[in-house]
Design goal:
The complex is a heterodimer of chains A (about 350) and B (about 400).
Chain A: E1 5-12, H1 19-28, E2 35-37, E3 46-49, H2 71-86, E4 97-103, H3 108-120, H4 137-146, E5 152-156, H5 161-174, E6 180-187, H6 191-198, E7 206-207, E8 209-216, E9 227-231, E10 235-236, H7 243-253, E11 262-264, H8 271-280, E12 287-289, H9 291-295, H10 300-315, E13 321-327, E14 332-339
Parallel strand pairs in A: 3-7, 4-5, 4-6, 11-12, 11-13
Antiparallel strand pairs in A: 1-8, 2-3, 6-8, 9-14, 10-14, 13-14
Chain B: E1 2-10, E2 13-14, H1 16-25, E3 31-32, E4 45-46, H2 62-66, H3 70-86, E5 96-99, H4 105-117, H5 125-132, H6 136-145, E6 151-154, H7 160-173, E7 179-186, H8 190-198, E8 222-229, H9 231-236, E9 243-252, H10 265-278, E10 287-289, H11 296-310, E11 319-320, H12 323-326, H13 333-347, E12 349-350, E13 371-372, E14 377-384, E15 388-395
Parallel strand pairs in B: 5-6, 5-7, 10-11, 10-14
Antiparallel strand pairs in B: 1-2, 1-8, 1-9, 3-4, 7-8, 9-15, 12-13, 14-15
Helix pairs in contact in B: 1-13, 3-6, 4-5, 7-13, 10-11
Classes of the chains: A alpha/beta (about 350), B alpha/beta (about 400).
């Protein structure tokens, strides 16, 4: 029976442009400093965690497609390249690389700028901005950068969609529709997003970045890659399903993980939202990671960071098993289990 | 897998019957946009749909029903027709797979205007955030019908609806589901209308796909939903079958963000993959429902791709684009055109389009007048911004 392995991971976050900076920030455990986002009409800016400038500038960011694109496309490209390079991926014409790009808010900066122009005077709205407002623009840039004409989906939803994308990637691999698959989640920051989240919590600090996971059915050498063991069905917060019940049912669907397993959860320091997830895992006595507490509410990027951080811990040999618990704000609870063991 | 329910709303009307009658005649339905101010736009018409006075809200609370945005209303109308036709009331855990480009864009626009004009007024803003998100319309469907299955929103620009149906078919084929609700929806919005206007992609005259003098596309709005079901299950419950989903292919054009590769390489690849998936050759395809937006670059690339894909059979495969009738429905286009293909297969007719002078690049015959025809398999192309290319093949129900 075919199995699905993780061959590479990549991350861009307020901590920096790679997985090691993400690891350092999470190991340190202190919330990262916030930047001020000017909000029109307000005296006080909105706090947010931004991705720092890359140093030195990454060479692939000079690709023609990425010169004028949105920040989230750059983050997605950088995370994807780290995941692929870490796996030793070499593009070949005969290799079918599937791409699944996941997003919640999308290219907000271009959308906000373009709509502002359209609203004030549609006759002078810039045609350069509009194409970058489309949800799948970053995914298109990824295909162009990687010269892949294979299937490419952009999925929109809450951060749990990232796990649905991993499940879809596994399905494509097991059906031999693709030879390998890249799953990327990304988000960019704008005052509009921070303003929107302020309607639900004054304590939440929004963030930006990306995470990428590269999968294939080929067994990696040694223990260089984890195996995807399970992804639960999504439990929607609908028709009488409370958040707590949804998370509990999701947890019940996951393997137990064992005493030395790691839990990567979606707790964000947003009490009203966190309560159900904390309750559902209250008896968890193992190690625990909460990337949002350190990095901020990065929406789809945060979903990707949860996975990448967990996979990085497995790669570092800290734990044999990792469980990922994603309890989105308004859509669903979904979980995943990864394992590092023998590859036979 | 088979289709046991279909629902549709476009500018031609609400429901299968009204749309089948309109598409069979090639009726065009464009009118001045009234949803937002277009007085300063270059183009002022679109195929704006007429919503029914009563939206089928089913199990939604009165409060939830009052908060429905236009996109959700369009989607509910189509979903209600499809679900009613399929008669599957006992099934609640089915996957919902939808394509959209804009979700609740109009709410996002309202949010932004209030945030700028009244920066300290928060009233209604939280609700706008929630319903702006592209998954919210799918959540509305789940709530209205009492479903609790997984939601997948595919936002592959103008191929989204076709990708959603193709993905739904994949779920059944792989055994992950027996029944899937799949489709696409998009409501007209100021941002998107202005976007296409700014690109000068909108026709200032008439949308005439594959016409030598074509000068752009026309936008429209609407929704279509299909109920996909495994053949065994449908036959087992003696469900009426509207048609078969025979093949699906998807490919990515990396040439440019908004322009197709001139020879339509990815379109060719997508059609080839769909044919391979269906186990059919181009000679066995009796009609092509083209993406056919009416823009000079898109239609020439698609014509080149069809010529190459069909080879010697090109002379015998009739092609038309129903965007001449209802405009480009963006995320809904692939789903609506799938429904049109099923109508054509069921009624054994070709949907015509009104054009003046066929582009000589088209080696295939263009359907310009209403006609009956024996149809066994038809192919539908959907291509989008970002190079998203998808092809579906449908078969006649036996």
């Amino acid at each position: 029976m075919k199995r699905v392995f993780i061959h590479g991971i990549g991350a861009v976050s307020p901590a920096g442009w790679d997985v090691s900076s993400l690891r350092q920030a999470l190991n340190c455990g202190a919330s990262l400093a916030t930047a001020a986002l000017e909000r029109p009409g307000w005296k006080h800016p909105l706090p947010a965690r931004r991705v720092p400038q890359p140093a030195p500038k990454l060479p692939f960011l000079a690709h023609a497609r990425l010169r004028r694109t949105s920040p989230m496309s750059l983050y997605a490209a950088a995370a994807a390249m780290e995941a692929l390079q870490g796996a030793g991926y070499i593009p070949r014409a005969s290799h079918r690389l599937g791409i699944i790009f996941c997003v919640t808010a999308g290219c907000v900066q271009y959308s906000r700028r373009f709509y502002d122009e359209a609203w004030r005077n549609p006759a002078t709205a810039s045609p350069l901005l509009f194409p970058e407002t489309v949800f799948n623009a970053p995914a298109s840039h990824l295909s162009a950068l990687l010269e892949s004409s294979c299937v490419n989906y952009t999925l929109v939803g809450d951060p749990g969609t990232f796990l649905q994308a991993l499940s879809l990637a596994a399905g494509w691999l097991l059906d031999a529709r693709v030879d390998s698959c890249l799953v990327v989640g990304a988000e960019e920051m704008d005052w509009l997003t921070a303003d929107a989240y302020r309607n639900f919590s004054r304590r939440v600090v929004c963030a930006e970045g990306a995470g990428a996971v590269y999968l294939s059915c080929q067994s990696p050498a040694g223990n260089a890659g984890a195996e995807l063991i399970a992804i639960t069905g999504p439990r929607l917060y609908l028709n009488g399903m409370s958040r707590l019940k949804a998370i509990r049912e999701m947890r019940a669907d996951l393997p137990s993980g064992g005493a030395d397993a790691l839990l990567s959860d979606s707790v964000a320091g947003w009490p009203a939202r966190d309560r159900a997830e904390i309750d559902a895992w209250s008896d968890w006595s193992g190690a625990r990671l909460s990337p949002r507490r350190v990095l901020g509410e990065g929406l789809m990027a945060a979903g990707a960071w949860q996975c990448v951080a967990a996979l990085d811990r497995l790669r570092q040999g800290s734990h044999p098993t990792a469980l990922v618990s994603m309890a989105g704000s308004h859509q669903q609870a979904i979980g995943a289990c990864f394992y590092v063991g023998t590859n036979g | 897998m088979v289709v046991t329910g279909a629902g549709i709303i476009t500018a031609l009307g609400r429901g299968w019957q009204a749309n089948a009658a309109g598409f069979r005649e090639g009726r065009r339905h464009f009118r001045p946009v009234t949803l937002f101010d277009v007085s300063r736009h270059r183009v002022k018409v679109a195929a704006q749909a007429e919503l029914p006075e009563s939206i089928p809200t089913r199990q939604l609370t009165a409060r939830a029903a009052r908060r429905l945005d236009r996109a959700a209303q369009l989607l509910l109308v189509a979903a209600d027709e499809a679900w009613t036709q399929a008669q599957l009331d006992g099934t609640k855990d089915l996957p919902v797979v939808l394509g959209t480009t804009s979700g609740g864009m109009a709410l996002g626009q309202t949010y932004y205007r209030q945030a700028i004009e009244h920066p300290h007024a928060a009233s209604h803003q939280a609700g706008r955030v929630l319903h702006y998100l592209a998954q919210s319309q799918a959540m509305v469907v789940e709530e209205a019908f009492g479903f609790h299955g997984p939601i997948t929103i595919i936002a592959n620009a103008c191929a989204s609806g076709a990708n959603a149906i193709g993905h739904g078919a994949d779920l059944i084929r792989s055994g992950q589901a027996d029944v899937v609700l799949a489709g696409g929806y998009d409501a007209l919005s100021e941002l998107v209308f202005t976007g296409f206007d700014s690109l000068q992609a909108l026709s200032p005259t008439e949308c005439r796909p594959f016409d030598a003098g074509r000068d752009g596309l026309a936008l429209g709005e609407g929704a279509a939903v299909l109920i996909l079901e495994s053949e065994a299950r449908a036959r087992g419950r003696h469900a009426p079958v509207l048609g078969l989903v025979a093949g699906y292919g998807a490919a990515t054009d990396v040439h440019h963000l908004t322009q197709p590769q001139p020879e339509g390489n990815a379109a060719f690849q997508s059609m080839q993959l769909a044919c391979a998936d269906a186990g059919l050759t181009p000679r066995e395809i009796n009609y092509v429902n083209a993406h056919g937006t009416g823009t000079p670059l898109n239609d020439s690339a698609e014509a080149a791709a069809i010529n190459r894909w069909a080879g010697g059979a090109a002379l015998e495969i009739p092609v038309s684009s129903t965007k001449a009738c209802i405009g480009h429905l963006l995320g809904a286009a692939g789903a609506v055109e799938a429904a049109v293909c099923l109508m054509a297969l069921q009624g054994q007719w070709l949907p015509p389009m009104s054009i003046n002078t066929p582009d000589p690049a088209c080696r295939f015959p263009l359907v310009r007048h209403p006609a009956d025809m024996r149809l066994e398999h038809v192919l539908s192309n959907s291509f989008g911004f970002g190079g998203a290319n998808a092809t579906l093949i449908f078969g006649r129900a036996s």
